[in-house]
Design a protein that fits this description.
Layout (H helix, E strand, L loop, with lengths): L8 E5 L11 H15 L3 E6 L14 E4 L4 H11 L3 E3 L4 H14 L1 H4 L3 E2 L4 H8 L1 H11 L6 E4 L2 H11 L3 E5 L9 E3 L2 H14 L5 E5 L5 E9 L5 E9 L12 E3 L6 H18 L3 E9 L6 E7 L4 H10 L3 H9 L26 E7 L20 E7 L2 H11 L17 H9 L5 H10 L4 H8 L3 H19 L4 H9 L4 H8 L3 H10 L5 E4 L13 E5 L13 E5 L11 H15 L3 E6 L14 E4 L4 H11 L3 E4 L1
Parallel strand pairs: 1-2, 1-4, 2-3, 4-5, 18-21, 19-20, 19-22, 20-21
Antiparallel strand pairs: 6-9, 7-8, 7-9, 10-11, 10-13, 11-12, 12-15, 13-14, 15-16, 17-18
Helix pairs in contact: 1-11, 5-6, 7-8, 13-14, 14-16, 15-16, 18-19
Length: 633
């Protein structure tokens, strides 16, 4: 089916200001959507109130309205512009909630504005806790025992029926706002009261707490011909109970057997088809580690933070595809922009491991409550790519820009064992570093598994990194060991710490022995087809896939993760400097580590390196590319 010709003007709703749980990923998805729709010849009207985003740049849409995102102002825009259609699924929770409110106000019907992509009915079925639960029962898909409540008394009555612990999940809120875990009656009353106040429909779901199960996510795409694919599956290192935005996430999943993977994949595709979502959708599932039992946690009928991560992890631009599907194109008609030869109906294949680490604001809010639960606390995130999980994890730690340079960076020596165990049971933002410290103190994988419920596979990997620290300490200047440490993601600075020397000497020693990284390509197809994309990551292997051109070039450094005091405005600056460099006839190269941003979209620059922004990692790219200079944003 070719694209629709009965619509010309499309209104896209942005996500407004950056808040915890909704950061730059919607600037990225919204910008991609606007570009994709204009590529297909439509007139795009954009409503958004955030001046720091690329999305509100005059070059992205045909007409931009910098107005408050309220029903009143959007109604005025609809009256003035009279668009044929509205695309709400790319502006995060803000866009979805506004689409529902505009429909209820009658303005869409009055002006004949059609909703593109996912229907309102599907949005409500996924977002309204009661409708979603009913649909899952119809499909025979398991959801945890739960009850919808509109008063605190109803919540108390349900707790008497099934006991504690329980989870409170308010309807139509963002990043788990207002929700939380309850271990007793007092907590239940407090959290439910707060959750009901914050839910726009005064509705909470009280459900059995399945904390300790594995948390798995599938990013799924569907078109109007009912064709569906899984773009990416991801596994949270932390078990259920910690918001996925606050968890370390790896892609592809590492601990699932093929049977488990297919079981959850089939459930995800069955759900997106039943909801009849047109575009992208994120399905979160909980898997019992001791059986094949699983539960559906929730479904986001829109692009989310996970879909920005999935896009960058696979190189498959989900928001761009979702926008094209919304105007009637199908997966087997859309070319995959990465390979330029295959179609969007191919499921991406990965020949590397991706790790996403959250960036927390506690360096600024020292006295803030660091405990992690079902409400999101991270302000941003970083992504790192490696040939093994250890390399991806350590590159991710370096990318966080919080003075951590490896697992030994945070000084935790003063902590008593009791305090350490308490912090492992009640997780906080330093959990990864505390696990490393526990291994240094001789704790076993089994002991830490009992305390944290983290899968033993991940604990073995962290333990192996601690064993490498000990080996480095015992055998300084040993070349084979150095090579192994570099393959596992250790930085020169961290190796220097264990060798009692400085970073420069380690670097010199490496260079004398020709030990430098090569660059591999992200191409969605595990190198099965020729790829057009200039999208690279470093690793310590043999063959280099990034060939430096003869053109004069300039490297632009991105700004890393979003944190308090450094938001999306630097991404805006990065992208604009790249556009100016290309306009002036130079080759523009970006180095950045933030998966949510427009600057790490492979179509923005001539070459993209997804790397930590440290002296060592940046200088390796500089040595390879030999640019005229570097612009620091």
């Amino acid at each position: 089916m070719p694209k629709r010709t009965d619509i010309q003007k499309i209104l896209v709703i942005g996500s407004g200001p950056i808040v915890i749980g909704q950061a730059a990923e919607f600037d990225y998805s919204g910008t991609q959507a606007c570009q994709a729709l204009r590529e297909e010849g439509y007139t795009v009207i954009l409503a958004n109130s955030n001046p720091a985003t690329i999305m509100t740049d005059h070059t992205v849409a045909d007409i931009v309205y910098m107005e408050p995102l309220t029903v009143e102002f959007l109604s005025k825009i609809i009256r003035k512009e009279q668009p044929d259609a509205l695309l709400p699924t790319l502006g995060g929770q803000t866009g979805l909630n506004l689409a529902v409110a505009l429909d209820n106000s009658g303005i869409l019907k009055e002006f004949g504005v059609e909703l593109l992509g996912t229907s309102l009915e599907a949005i409500q079925q996924a977002e309204d806790r009661e409708k979603f639960r009913d649909l899952m029962h119809q499909l025979g898909e398991p959801v945890p025992e739960s009850q919808i409540v509109t008063t605190v008394d109803q919540a108390v009555a349900f707790s008497e029926e099934i006991g504690f612990p329980l989870i409170v999940r308010p309807a139509y809120t963002l990043g788990g706002t207002g929700g939380g875990m309850c271990y007793d009656l007092e907590e239940l009353k407090t959290i439910t009261k707060n959750g009901l106040a914050l839910s726009p429909v005064t509705q909470c779901l009280i459900e059995r707490n399945i904390a300790g199960f594995k948390e798995i996510e599938y990013e799924v795409m569907r078109d109007k011909n009912d064709q569906a694919i899984v773009v990416c599956n991801m596994e949270n290192v932390d078990p259920v109970g910690i918001h996925t935005g606050d968890s370390i996430v790896v892609a592809p999943s590492q601990t699932l057997s093929d049977r488990e993977y297919q079981l959850l994949r089939n459930a995800s595709i069955k759900i997106i088809k039943a909801l009849q979502i047109e575009g992208g959708c994120n399905v979160q599932l909980a898997l019992d580690p001791h059986s094949f039992n699983y539960y559906i946690i929730e479904v986001n009928p829109r692009v989310s933070r996970s879909s920005a991560l999935a896009s960058k992890a696979t190189g498959y631009p989900i928001a761009k595809m979702a926008a094209k599907i919304a105007v009637g194109l199908t997966l087997d008609e859309i070319k995959n922009p990465v390979t330029g030869t295959t179609y969007a109906y191919f499921e991406p294949a990965l020949d590397y491991v991706v790790a996403k680490l959250p960036r927390f604001p506690f360096d600024k809010f020292v006295s803030g409550n660091r405990k992690l639960g079902t409400q999101m606390k991270a302000t941003g995130e970083v992504m790192a790519i490696g040939r093994n999980i250890e390399e991806a994890l350590l590159k991710g730690v370096r990318s966080l820009d919080n003075k951590a340079n490896g697992l030994a960076s945070l000084r935790l020596d003063e902590m008593t064992n009791d305090e350490m165990e308490h912090r492992l049971v009640k997780a906080d933002d330093e959990r990864l570093f505390i696990l490393a410290e526990a291994f240094r103190r001789g704790y076993s994988v089994e002991q830490l598994h009992q305390l944290t419920k983290i899968d033993r596979f991940f604990l073995w990997k962290i333990e192996a990194l601690i064993e490498m620290e000990i080996s480095l300490q015992e055998q300084p200047w040993e070349l084979e060991l150095l090579k192994e440490a570099k393959q596992k993601g250790f930085s020169d600075r961290e190796i220097a710490h264990w060798w009692n020397t400085n970073e420069d000497k380690v670097y010199q020693f490496r260079m004398e022995n020709q030990l430098a990284p090569v660059y591999k390509m992200v191409d969605t197809c595990a190198a099965e087809f020729e790829s057009q994309t200039p999208y690279f990551y470093s690793t310590y292997e043999e063959e280099n896939e990034s060939i430096a051109s003869d053109k004069e070039k300039v490297i632009v450094l991105g700004s890393g993760p979003i944190r308090i005091g450094q938001g999306i405005e630097f991404d805006y600056a990065t992208v604009h400097s790249v556009l100016a460099i290309r306009e002036a006839g130079y080759e523009a190269i970006i180095i950045n580590s933030n998966p949510e941003t427009v600057s790490t979209d492979f179509s923005v620059s001539d070459k993209l390196y997804f790397e930590p922004l440290t002296l060592e990692d940046v200088m390796h790219v500089v040595n390879l590319e030999n640019p005229l200079g570097v612009i620091v944003q």
